[in-house]
Amino acid sequence: MPSPPEPPAPVSSADLFRGFLGIGLSGFGGVMPWARRMVVERRRWLDAAEFNDLLALCQFLPGPNVINLSVALGARFAGGRGALAAFAGLMLAPMAVVIGLGALYTRYGDLAFVQHLFHGLAAGASGLILATAAKIAWPLRRHPVAIAIALLVLFAAAGLRLPLFFVLVAGVGFSLVAARGAR
Amino acid sequence: MTLALKLFLTFAALSPLAFGGGNTILPEMQRQVVSVHHWLSASDFVVLYALAQAAPGPNMLVATLIGWRVAGLGGALAATFGLCLPSSLLTFAIAGLWWRFREASWRRWIQAALVPVTVGLVGAGAAVIAAETARGPLAAVITALVALLTLATRANPLWFLAASALAGVVGRV
Questions:
Q1: Disruptive mutation site among B25, B35, B61 for chain A (greatest number of A CBs within 10 Å)
Q2: Do the domain assignments include residue B51?
Q3: Which of B69, B121, B144 sits opposite A127 (nearest CB)?
Q4: pLDDT in tens, B59-102
Q5: Residue B173 domain flag
């Protein structure tokens, strides 16, 4: 049974805060590539395989993946304090920026010009999430059962607007049975 | 119950359901914020979502913005911590155990089963957002172009958002 590899060098809470502060400020439209660059390539806190394992955990558990990553990595190097430091570093600057943008929108949102700007922006953001959906759907293209489950979930959540909890329980239930058959 | 506490509880209830990352809870977040609590209109929701996409950082900053819009700074903190706290505590508790189960077959089984559900939920989030932003032919064309360019190129998505905003001003979307 593999045991967790020892961290190569001590990483303090302050290091974690600074490292994740940089990630929070650099990532646009997806932070994970930046997180990988900082953790694996620049600071060498983990090697590539360790990073992939940690990433698998963070994708497996509920919650925003990169936030889970900050917590898990912080905890690994410096316990609860480290988890808090990494989380605070990751969130502080982006929260300030986003609130600043929100304040601008509230202040100037009534101007026709600003309305057009934000509606254009929103149309673009729609395109980004459509592309994300297409990207994660692509690996399922040769799995008709998985496609059927995905379409049912889509219809239940977006068409029928059923509460997420029921959609999750039913969807994961079906999917577990189907995946068991496929094993 | 204060508004900030309501925000905290609403987002905290979403957190442990966010399998597959933040985007999977988007349809439910929209349902809660727009239809259940009537905190925002559907059109305000998509604008805040777009603003969060235009800012650096994790994509779930839309929670921060919604909280801020509904109840000021306290609301922003309440919504953000609500969304992050339950899942973070779970991660904190489980990170150590993970290594022991990483080869376990049940883990791979659950992981494989989650994929189609995640795909469906992210697709639902995209449908809910796109249905609201497609205000006319030009907006729909912007959405389609950005989606295609994002899939076909490796350019920074921020450029596409900037071009979309510009197209919105020029074309009076």
A1: B61
A2: yes
A3: B144
A4: 789 999 999 999 999 999 999 999 999 999 999 988 877 767 76
A5: no
